[in-house]
Design a protein that fits this description.
The complex is a heterodimer of chains A (about 300) and B (about 270). Helices cover about 25% and strands about 35% of the residues of chain A. With about 300 residues, chain A is α+β, with helices and mostly antiparallel strands. Chain A is elongated. Classes of the chains: A alpha+beta (about 300), B mainly beta (about 270).
Chain lengths: ~300, ~270
Amino acid sequence: MDEIAEIDEIRGVAIDDTFAEAFTMHAARVIITAKTTRWARQAALELTGFATSVIACKCEAAIERDIPEAESPDGRPAVSVLLFTVDAESMGKRLVERIGQTVLTCPTTACFDGLPGAETRVAVGRPLRVFGDGFQASKVVGGTRYWRIPVMEGEFLVAETFGVVKGVGGGNFLILAESADAALEAAEAAVDAMAGRAGVILPFPGGIARSGSKVGSRRYPEMVATTNDAYCPTLRAVTTSALPEGVHSVLEIVLDGLDADAIAGAMRVGITAACRAGVRAISAGNYGGKLGPHHFHLRRILAGDDAGAAAR
Amino acid sequence: MSDEIVVTPHAIGEHTIEADAIAPDRLASLSQLEIARLPVWAGGRPARLGDIFSVRGERASTVRIDGDATHVDGLGSAMAGGTLHIEGSAGRRLGAGMTGGAIHVLGDTGDDAGSAMAGGLLRVGGRAGDRLGAARAGAAKGMTGGEIIVLGAAGSEAGAGARRGLIVVCGDVGAHAARGMIAGSVIVFGAAGAGAARWSKRGTLVVAGTVDVEPTFGFACTYRPPHLRLTLTYLRAKYALPIDDGYIHGLYRRYSGDMAELGKGEILQWVTE
């Protein structure tokens, strides 16, 4: 196999010789259409609210991209959402409760499965249909069954089942900057560069996490995750810090994707955009490589070696 | 093995030919000679397919009727796969009971096309006769699946007794469309004759033109049906049907009925964009 020259710096920003460690998760794609982009996006924002981390939110979700009307299932403005859970069974529960509370309730929307070819299916429209209290009806269109649930506005249309595939959760990189302002500007540039890429979402607020965590706690046994003290600038003097000299703020970008290639491609674009004035280094979070099956080596990703980057 | 099997009518007299042997999945494993020996009925008398048609090609799942088959009944009936192209018109019971595959007719088709159909596609370039996708005589259920597209008009009782599936008629339909429909959809871009959806239990009859709604249907509201928007978008994309945006996103009057039955069916009458 040919050696690929690894990239250890971009525009003077050091790329740490490390990797992001990610996990296999289960993914669904929900396509929301509405009369206008405003309402499709509003429903998508509600659907993906409180969905930053499976640790406490039971799922991770965010808007994947806007879908042009020409590609939309019903010819209207549409927004695509990706949702990730730890297993397929809980995916069904999350979709039912979230679609039921945030899309069904939102004016003018309809809700479609964005992974129609997936073999694993979870029932969504089927359990939601009983909200129709016996007045609901089904309709098969193009081999897919939909439920028509009468609502005060008119009707809510939702696919009977949604496809679930195995995806990858927890791709990440850290932006180590000279100041909080520089970190935020770099993170925003990274998010903007990654926006709208198919198959990838950034589940944290605005795509950015300021509170990266470590597994467990040094003090509270009941805690599943606590602050990543090694990367907290205010703790440099009181803990075993991982921060190089001159770094005064760190932000993290977390990525979930339908496959490793999607994450690697987005990381390459995002990291490249984040390498700008005021940033000292780009790093990544991992657990020594012992927990997650997907390893995204930063230097190899930036060299364009997606396959090698994702290998354990 | 050839790309397709071409069947050309050459000795059709004044009698009707019953040729349910001509179905792509039945011919797919046969040689040219075996195809020519298949039984048909000509004017009520037994004959061989080769007596009526010339056959070119063998062992192919695409069959082309190269000529007019207006007097040939039963083409593609009960077929489960493959593709049947008919370059002219077809007789009665075209695709009756078919469960899969596709039939494309350039011209018209006779009565009972797609009757009791359970799957696949039946596309008619011209006009369809009576009982399109309807129940066989004496049967309780009409089509139970599949899709029928008619670019012209259709006769009476289109979709009568349908249990599932989709019928689209771009022109007018005669009387009693969707009569006794159990479920499924019949979409008519022209006008519908008298007795539309009478005795239907569930299902949807969409009429873009005029329709006299039976008194046993109750007016509900005027709205933009989401399922119809999806269905019409699907039809335009899949079959390149020239469906205007005004129908896809338009307003429809919803009538629920037939109240003499379950009352869970509907007539959707297009009103305006």
